[in-house]
Fold these 4 entries.
Entry 1:
Amino acid sequence: NVSSAGEEARRRMRECEGLTDALLYVIQTALGSSEIDSKTVENCVCILRNLSYRLAAETSQSQQGGSEELDGLLCDTGGKDAESSGCWGKKKKKKKGHDQWDGVGPFPDLAEPPKGIQMLWHPTIVKPYLTLLSECSNPDTLEGAAGALQNLAAGSWKWSVYIRAAVRKEKGLPILVELLRIDNDRVVCAVATALRNMALDIRNKELIGKYAMRDLVHRLPGGSNNNNSSGGGGGGGNTSSLVGKTMSDDTITAICCALHEVITKNMENTKALRDAGGIEKLIGIARSKGDKHSPKVVKAASQVLNSMWQYRDLRSLYKKDGYSQYHFVGSSSTIERDRQRPYSSSRTPSISPVRTSPNNRSG
């Protein structure tokens, strides 16, 4: 619980010699054993998730080994055509070759193994988190691991860019998508926000739009939730069990924000959202006006609809489905302004909030 006590406590814990190494050692030794679902592993993961909170802002440049932002590797940082590979080539200034990285090859700056605090954000930390997400059944550990990846993948920090690519290279996106189907509201919320941050990477965005769209839409309330015709369904007994229950506002908002990121500057993904039946559900949420959902949820759904309407080439399809501009734009006066703003903690946070150990929490 010390890791949740604020910025100064996090700073001191990060600088505590051997702590990060020890936490990762406990997790590594538990992988593949019955200990993977233990309280010990859960606590270690939750500490690492908390220590991963706001790393770029709370660590020095000397600790980070350089803090260049790789804006050219973000798919939402301007440019004429975000659907082209040119998004990856956008550069700010010539800098030591950092922004020459193509997003595919070996990571720069990784000549030496990480030490101490650097282990928190080094791409090698992705693999144990993904192993936990694929093998663990403890929902608090799953939420913690997804929240850690969510924190590490947020923003335009150089190491966040590397983490997003590392998750793709380690085949982590299918693992996250699979967890959208789990019967646990908090896990789904953390995973949806992690996917939103992963979608800042243009290649991740294309993959998430292609393989996760139906799962994301399926999690939205309303519409016909008996949509089992998708190839993205699959899964076992946990699939769709949460849909019949009342999801929290935070989870519905997280799903809407993930959808918004995935369709931003990507017309193919927007068409996939329409094909998956997302319009009907989003309109149902946006029109609820607080009857069923909070203003935060209504605003998030309205934001997705507004962005969908921006694609002129898709409007004929919308009209064919019986929808008009009114269904997409409505009366939300602040949506367009918010669309230009990066996600911040005042809305659905792109970083996982620090939490105390969930000792008394149960499913």
Entry 2:
Amino acid sequence: MWTSKTITFILFTATTTLLTSSNATTNATTQPLFPAILIFGDSTVDTGNNNYPTNTFFRATHLPYGIDLPNHEANGRFSNGKLIPDILAARYNIKQLVPPFLQPNLSDQEIVTGVCFASAGAGYDDLTSLSTQAIPVSEQPKMFKSYIARLKSIVGDKKAMEIINNAVVVISAGTNDFILNYYTIPSRRLQYPHFSSYQDFILKRLDNLIGELYSLGCRNIVIAGLPPIGCLPIQMTAKFRNIFRFCLEQENKDSVVYNQKLQKQLSQIQASLTGTKILYANIYDPIYDMMQNPSKYGFKETKRGCCGTGFLETSFMCNALSPTCENHSEFLFFDSIHPSEATYNYIGDLLDPQIREWIAA
């Protein structure tokens, strides 16, 4: 017959085993997939760097931007809520929001888990950033070098490089080079009369950026292609006779060709840089599908933004005096250029499993 001591011991052992198993399961699900997230690019991923330079043209420091964030305050994100960097960081248990590197008084923990270097209005072409006073993509690695120096001061040289080697790096840019530069300003069209040659120029700039980030220790790099540029509300508005607001097919074709070239180039870059894993993020197809099949995603409006008329408003034109749509999640775009948080969440749903499979391969 079992004694009371024997029964107590068995119960204690069983409880300890269950707790250990439960803790192991919890740790497996809460362990970050990457130690840090590092972001480069334009307004699609700028979490607030443009708040700080005094001369930047594009800012989102006012409502209704940020209205659906946890604190319902504008903080520099060009949407009603979270951006892709925030969504991915949360999915991978890194952090809930990715701070901009230029934010004053960043904590050591924020530095260790990664920051954003992107700037709204930036492009791979420095001329694009010159017209918007954004921080050019080519200049963003300089901020990254400052970040590395601070990271090393916190965790030491060896641990810092381990974090950077294993961090996920996200690059999203290129759209501004076309809508704010080549399609709008004549100087580049005179220099590159064939559109294809300008695409090649942009891709060479991206090649240089990847090479520089590689030299600084980055190894896991996700690069977004172009969206269907001709479906951006502001581009539809630019064609004054487009009263039915159709997507501009030629601009969409330009995006498709660029993305095809980009995918081919990324394969070549990965083969040339030892130890690098590069993932092409296809954002064209999901956004185009949202345009064609809005009800599938719960959208009721895809041809204008939620802010103001939705035809032109962005940055300072989308402000606290602008009327906004009643249900933000029913609009594909929040302003005339930038997607709503709902759109970013759908894109995050698609990217998440792709990134998990890619990094595990």
Entry 3:
Amino acid sequence: MPRRRDVLALVLIVLPWTLLITVWHQSPVTPQPVTRKDNRRVVSRTHSNGLQPKESCVIYNSVSPGVVRTEYAYGRPAPWSDLLPTIHIITPTYTRPVQKAELTRLANTLLHVPNLHWIVVEDAPRRTPLVSRLLRSTGLNHTHLNVETPRAYRLHREPRAARVPRGTTQRNLGLRWLREALGHGADHRGVVYFADDDNTYSLELFEEMRSTQKVSVWPVAFVGGLRYESPKINTMGRVYGWRTVFDPHRPFAIDMAGFAINLQLILSKPQAYFKLKGVKGGYQESSLLRELVTLGDLEPKADNCTKVLVWHTRTERPVLVNEGKKGFTDFSVEI
């Protein structure tokens, strides 16, 4: 018979190992990043719509053409559900000192939004490595495009009212890509939203817009020289005008960040684009929306337009006077 002391010693040796193995088997394993990038191919196309902008994009073989689908990112399950409509975010961007900071901030917001496809369009003759690396590092479902604003629309000697606002050509390319990639008769459920990279967005906004039937609208803060601009809503919950000071008689006196469009409406109206010519300042939004809906079709969101969920926060331009002409810091360091 073994002595009592020997039995106790054996128990003290075996018990810790038993507990350690049990705990290890019960611990959840964090999924590692796995991105499908099969059959990768780069597609370059030239479109002719009077301006003949050159575009290029990275195409991946996935659920939707041109969309990089990420199974897991940073140990976080992919935010995708077949039950939810997809939100297609079109973001124009251009090279400047704060570009990476702006896109990083926006990406950190979009990472929390399920069923999201981010279409980033650079105002450049080619896609830049900075934006390409940033998009890949986010793990977001994305499409990366580029088109340079025609030189004729950049001339500073033109009257201010005749200039095309920055991002117009890029937003149009995003719309064109959706129509070409998804097809006019395809049964895709989704919403299209134009999100500039220098705005601030509440996560609630994206869930509000997801149920858009035609065009949904809401207030936008820090625009038009006001604390916020907003649609006017009557007692029946319908839009009947605009709470703004700058040209309130515009057909749609609304900021670019103040509306979302049902994807099927975009696909069924191939003629609807932002106009490049003959459009006064502040009328870009109207040039697109009047091709899609009437005032009575608009759907107020954000508690009947009583809540502000998006802010037009422009980042202050950094003061770099100490860099000098040759540059004091190392320009090979990406900022």
Entry 4:
Amino acid sequence: MRVILNRETTEDGKNLLFDHGAPYFSVTNPAVLDVVHEWESRGLAAEWKERFGSYDCFSNKFIDHDEESSRRRFVGIPGMNSICKGLCNDPGIENKFGVGVGKLEWMADQNLWSLISLDGQFLGNFGGLIATDKLLAASGFAHLKGVPPPIDMNVAPQIASRMKDLPARPCFALMLAFAEPLQSIPMKGFSFINSEILRSASCDSSKPGRPSSSECWVLYSTAEYAKKVIDECDAGLKKPSIATLTRVAEELLQAFRSTGLCTSQPYFMRAHRWGSAFPAVSIAKEEKCLWDASKRMGVCGDFCVSPSVEGAIESGLAAALKLIEMFVPHNNQNTGTKL
């Protein structure tokens, strides 16, 4: 699952931070909770301690669910993508940002993976491979990128066949900034009940480590609304036009206003498409990841376990363990194989 931070600067110099991907994550798996506690100790994550619940658009009332209020919610510091950034800075990690992999080639004679970028650059040979892109073997990859999927279906047929055209539920996010707090909202995060357009709302400026000079909210659409808009503009997996995003922003804001919760005019407003926000299937619930031992290749992500950050972490841990189990003996022999 991608976790995204959008940083905006207004004309008067105000810094606005929005998590327009996953707004937070909760954890029930003890192994994942241990990882999160380690992130907390490093200052990469913190618990978001606020009041949460639901809002019924029929009765126009908030419902303070005990379960919603008691569930612990974690966020990255100062943004959701800070966790990934922090992990990328760990010792021994070599990063290549802004590079798309166009081809994953298995060199059987050398027992290595060769990676080629979208623009044809050689990225290196590697003894093991873990991929997290759910479009890895999807036909939609060609429609989106203009080139075939990076992996040949014949190279890892068992993995490729299980990843072909994974269904997902789309979502639109609307980032809003207000000069003053929305006094009629007693909660900092809530879901909508009986709304055809709105799914949930989060007050990002109430999260730990965020600027508080403005009140920043992110509204998330229902999957049904997002699919309707995408079908109407025939966007498919591609980025919607500015006109479409403007329309989405206006419709989400109007739906928010119709609840009576928002009477102020935001001084900043921008819509974002969260294209494949929530996987509609889990393809490796038992195994937690896909794994081809003969080629030392794994695939992990929320689409393997569950459509959540916790699901993505759990899947990543499983794939990492598979790779470690294969390479620890080689590492002990100091072969210098790259992973």
